[in-house]
Amino acid sequence: MSVSDLTTLDKPNLKVLSTTTSTNDAAREWLNSGAPDGATLVADYQTAGRGRLGRQWHSPRGLDLTLSMIFIAPIESLRLVPLLGGLAVRAAVEEFLPPVIVPQIKWPNDILASGFKLAGVLAELISQPVSAAILGIGVNLNTRAGDFPADLRRPAASLGMLRGKAVKRDQFLESVLFHLKAYRKMWFQTPRSLVTTFSANCLTLGKKVKVSPPGREPFEATASGVDPFGTLMVVDRKGTTIPVEAGDVDPVD
Fold first, then answer.
1. Domain containing residue 61
2. Which runs of consecutive H residues, i.e. helices, occur in 46-135?
3. Each residue's pLDDT tens digit, 36-86
4. Comparing C-alpha atoms, which of 229, 228, 230, 222 is closest to residue 249?
């Protein structure tokens, strides 16, 4: 595939690039020059794609989908953007999988199916020139098993691998944009419903987990819920409820 398969969609405020460092970087530049709320940038290839906590996001040219969408809103509302993104990508992935495979969200940003990571979401907050968030989305659509780096932290797969045939990028892009629009509406009108819907699709809740907060010692706890601001709540071995806003949260075998 080439970038031409991504340019078939003619939508307002949608840009398609052949190559960029990362779609979040390009979206930030666009925001600085006056991009409107909802502006979306898609790239065929990223030379320096990134995930959470500074990790590299690997995506071969012409095979997968990487995009970023701009959200302009008060800072307190932007905390729910990662949840919105996770729900939209999960819904799009579900459309392309057999009914027996149900994708779920691993808090805060991974989309998993059959134990494999298919997608990741990264939201970066910005205060200038306006209060905004840039939601980055990376989806493994057609990457082959041998194309994934050997040192990935979690087992990865592509949507094409699980469904047994290639995914057309323009069709998947249209699905993601459709679901982003729907969940943006929920986020704007009934944010509590957004959190409730996220919780219903989050495989982390109710599980024993290992929490690795940035700069702190890991600890084990039970994931008990998600608060109205998207923060994960866990209960440690002493029965103390602890909010987790960042870091890795992995299931304990």
1. 3-200
2. 75-78, 81-95
3. 999 999 999 888 666 554 555 566 778 899 999 999 999 999 999 999 999
4. 222
